[in-house]
């Protein structure tokens, strides 16, 4: 559990959740067990006063790039739109799971789906956050050929988030693939500049450069461990913090 007696380090958080967070390991679809666990973790951090916007992926249902090889019957742009609609499915599921446990939530989509989601409107989204509502941001950016990592980086800047938290199934950024190299080193903190110099994979290149250019810190952490979001919000050592070198030296 996070130490709630310490002040919040991050008041407004952009949380990037992969589609795999919604399903069991190596399975597709949506697991009620997993989505309930995710919702309970989110409830705990929101109850501490954090303003939370969530960009969810859709890889548990469909990835647009899976159609890039083989037949051209489905065009690449169409495949990406299919992937975007998958994120709306996840967003609907997460919204219901959160509201079932008492967390007020709004689903906004970059693709117009007025029957099930609000359109993404920056000022409306910020107002929801200020009122203590979780805002789930689905549909990526609404444009093909753009990853949900990039959507998260762009929305973080639009919403003036203090940090982008990337929820993964590993506990941070390593010097090498820890599954292939048992001597790989996990970093507690690393600068944007060192990530580039070592060619480490944190987010896709466009998302990473956007965060670096606009000095938006990135926290990569293991979302499978309950309580990590709340701990990170209070500044406890969780995962790997990627930030400007000058900020890390403060």
From TrEMBL:
<dbReference type="GO" id="GO:0005737">
    <property type="term" value="C:cytoplasm"/>
</dbReference>
<dbReference type="GO" id="GO:0044210">
    <property type="term" value="P:'de novo' CTP biosynthetic process"/>
</dbReference>
<keyword id="KW-0067">ATP-binding</keyword>
<keyword id="KW-0547">Nucleotide-binding</keyword>
<dbReference type="GO" id="GO:0006225">
    <property type="term" value="P:UDP biosynthetic process"/>
</dbReference>
<feature type="binding site">
    <location>
        <begin position="141"/>
        <end position="148"/>
    </location>
    <ligand>
        <name>UMP</name>
    </ligand>
</feature>
<dbReference type="InterPro" id="IPR036393">
    <property type="entry name" value="AceGlu_kinase-like_sf"/>
</dbReference>
<dbReference type="GO" id="GO:0005524">
    <property type="term" value="F:ATP binding"/>
</dbReference>
<keyword id="KW-0418">Kinase</keyword>
<comment type="similarity">
    <text>Belongs to the UMP kinase family.</text>
</comment>
<feature type="binding site">
    <location>
        <position position="58"/>
    </location>
    <ligand>
        <name>UMP</name>
    </ligand>
</feature>
<dbReference type="InterPro" id="IPR011817">
    <property type="entry name" value="Uridylate_kinase"/>
</dbReference>
<feature type="domain" description="Aspartate/glutamate/uridylate kinase">
    <location>
        <begin position="11"/>
        <end position="222"/>
    </location>
</feature>
<protein>
    <recommendedName>
        <fullName>Uridylate kinase</fullName>
        <ecNumber>2.7.4.22</ecNumber>
    </recommendedName>
</protein>
<feature type="binding site">
    <location>
        <position position="177"/>
    </location>
    <ligand>
        <name>ATP</name>
    </ligand>
</feature>
<keyword id="KW-0808">Transferase</keyword>
<comment type="function">
    <text>Catalyzes the reversible phosphorylation of UMP to UDP.</text>
</comment>
<comment type="subunit">
    <text>Homohexamer.</text>
</comment>
<feature type="binding site">
    <location>
        <position position="63"/>
    </location>
    <ligand>
        <name>ATP</name>
    </ligand>
</feature>
<dbReference type="InterPro" id="IPR001048">
    <property type="entry name" value="Asp/Glu/Uridylate_kinase"/>
</dbReference>
<feature type="binding site">
    <location>
        <position position="59"/>
    </location>
    <ligand>
        <name>ATP</name>
    </ligand>
</feature>
<dbReference type="InterPro" id="IPR015963">
    <property type="entry name" value="Uridylate_kinase_bac"/>
</dbReference>
<dbReference type="Pfam" id="PF00696">
    <property type="entry name" value="AA_kinase"/>
</dbReference>
<feature type="binding site">
    <location>
        <position position="174"/>
    </location>
    <ligand>
        <name>ATP</name>
    </ligand>
</feature>
<feature type="binding site">
    <location>
        <position position="168"/>
    </location>
    <ligand>
        <name>ATP</name>
    </ligand>
</feature>
<keyword id="KW-0665">Pyrimidine biosynthesis</keyword>
<comment type="pathway">
    <text>Pyrimidine metabolism; CTP biosynthesis via de novo pathway; UDP from UMP (UMPK route): step 1/1.</text>
</comment>
<keyword id="KW-0963">Cytoplasm</keyword>
<dbReference type="GO" id="GO:0033862">
    <property type="term" value="F:UMP kinase activity"/>
</dbReference>
<feature type="binding site">
    <location>
        <begin position="16"/>
        <end position="19"/>
    </location>
    <ligand>
        <name>ATP</name>
    </ligand>
</feature>
